[in-house]
Amino acid sequence: MKFDSIVVRMVQLQGKSHVVQRLRSWRVTIITDSSIVLRDSARVKRKSKWQLTSGPEDNSAVRLFCEGLLLIDFKTLIRPTHHDGQKRSIKELRWGLRVFTGSSMCFFRDLLRSYLILRDNNLEAVSFLVTRAMYETICGAHFINGEYTSHVRAGELEEVWKVLNRVSTGTKVLRYHQQTDPETTLKIGETVNSLDSLSPNGPAGSSYALYRHLSEFSHPDALAFTHYCQMDKNPNRVAFFTEPEPDQGFLRHTVGTLILISGIVYRNLFTTAELHTPERQLDKLIAQFRETESKYPKPIPRSCA
Length: 305
What we know:
Elements lengths: L5 E9 L4 E12 L5 E4 L20 H11 L19 H31 L3 H30 L3 H13 L2 H7 L9 H7 L11 H11 L5 H4 L3 E4 L4 E4 L9 H23 L3 H18 L12
């Protein structure tokens, strides 16, 4: 079904005489498949809130890295025999870590694959959501590896199992339906803050600062809403947009940084879990991406452009 264009006129009336003070026109085009595109014919040029690069967004290196991750194969795992009342063995703990490691990597690479599909289709809002999910996944992987390593070194094998159980049990809702013991869930702030240990000389709280920034664009709040409206002080006008302004730098730069961090985090996790083949594959992929990324234009503030 096709509809003709509709011209919508908004009239602001003031005073008893109903004098027309302002008249603005918007052209609304309704097209097939329930898609709606709004065009503001009276709108001034949109003011960008984003950072710029020296050229259009290029995700070819990200795509090549993602394709390489999808080729990493995780073999079927058989749990070592465990009897009730028996203490946890290091083999059983390593099995548990391998289950987590394989699952975490599979989730991360699928998020990255989904991100590329979103970027190909200019889906800005969900791109921020998936970027934040990738960041959360990396932080969780780093946290688990740190907890596992420290407890094993201290000979606290039962504590290792508790950590693995916390991450595998799931949310409070899942435990409620399964009627399992109400153990403390992993807190996202706890996992995000752990990433600071990768740069001990850096500013404290920098990892959580990035997470908060991504969260502001992932929740229904002011910063997320600024994707869809522009406020001008003079003449106190608010213009609305059906689609966000295309990102020009921030997401590509952030995802590139997350990939480099993921290379460190998952390499450490593969080493701890003794997954040597995936470790070698990841090393090769990260080396290729790091070389390409070093040549990619870095975003600069709009005020400097």
